[in-house]
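Minimal example, chain plus adenosine-5'-triphosphate.
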Amino acid sequence: MGLFSFLTSDIAIDLGTANTLIMHNGRILVDEPSIIAIDKRTGKILAIGHQAMQMHGKTNEHIKTIRPLKDGVIADFTAAEQMIRGLVKMLPTTNKLFAAAHRIVVSIPSGITEVEKRAVKDSCEHAGAKEVYMVYEPLAAAVGIGIDITQPTGIMIIDIGGGTTEIAVIALSGIVCEQSIRIAGDVFTRDIVDYMRREHNLLIGERSGEEIKKHIGSALSELVSPPADYEIRGRDLMTGIPKEIKVTYREIAYCLDRSIAKIEEATLKVLEMAPPELSADIYTNGIHLTGGGALLHGLGERLAAKTHLPVQVADDPLRAVVKGTGEFIKDLAKYESVLIR
Ligand SMILES: Nc1ncnc2c1ncn2[C@@H]1O[C@H](COP(=O)(O)OP(=O)(O)OP(=O)(O)O)[C@@H](O)[C@H]1O
């Protein structure tokens, strides 16, 4: 008997490169980093989500941490399945509401291939789901921020996640034109780690790079309300001794500049592709920014300056996709044309 058959209702999953969120009946019950830790000798899972993230970069030879998704898609099928299983187990199964849940809606990047889609579906099925529906992330993000995607109105979404940035123009429940690029949070983190090594001779880990990004990551070198300098520790490459330095947001803006320019480029491409009637709508309604990357300081302002359009950063950008995915599972019939089996 599959895991989902013990549950009492349908669930929505935002299976992300960085974070996986699970929602039921309008409530986000699981919000964990997409990572597992296993014992290399036995293959046993030692930790999932936050607990596994604590171990990331600090493991000994017997422990391995795995991030099952890369660039928005499943890179390690077995680990993905184990992670989904483990995260679903975190749901309060004692709650009667979960008694008959065997349908799930899971969000996927819009640039995903048929083989990659199959991998998502199979992972969910192997984890116990009986019916799996998939929905493209930009559609879920739009619904998640409260937009009615069924209207004949052009909506532009830029969803910057961990692995992919999805830029799409949506109308009448469908994606009219889009670009899905593999420049997002993970690349920003890598840019920071590389910069620290190059400019400061300081070797830092992925987690430290991510902390810098979250605290002082900036898309602009001049901010109206700048964050305070951030202290970071790592290994001095010259001496091999641990050291601490202070980093400014301006340095981070400098090292992220190239990657952000690629997002700008893709945004302009999508705007160029949009049919004129939808361009007119976008001129009025502007661009909606979702995903964790939307939290970079000054990103909204930078994109607004580049496109000369109003840019709105979602209130809760990290949760927009799962909130939208949760709406789809509530009314499968209404969204039949949007959902992929
Ligand atoms: N305050 C912040 N500033 C900048 N980046 C942030 C901030 N908070 C989170 N992030 C980044 O956002 C990314 C995660 O965003 P999100 O959860 O939307 O992506 P995901 O759904 O896991 O990825 P994908 O959709 O690409 O599969 C991570 O790279 C994380 O480091």
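The longest strand covers residues 174-181. The pocket of adenosine-5'-triphosphate is lined by residues 14, 16-19, 72, 137, 161-164, 184-186, 210, 213-214, 217, 291-293, 295-296, 318 (CB under 6 Å).
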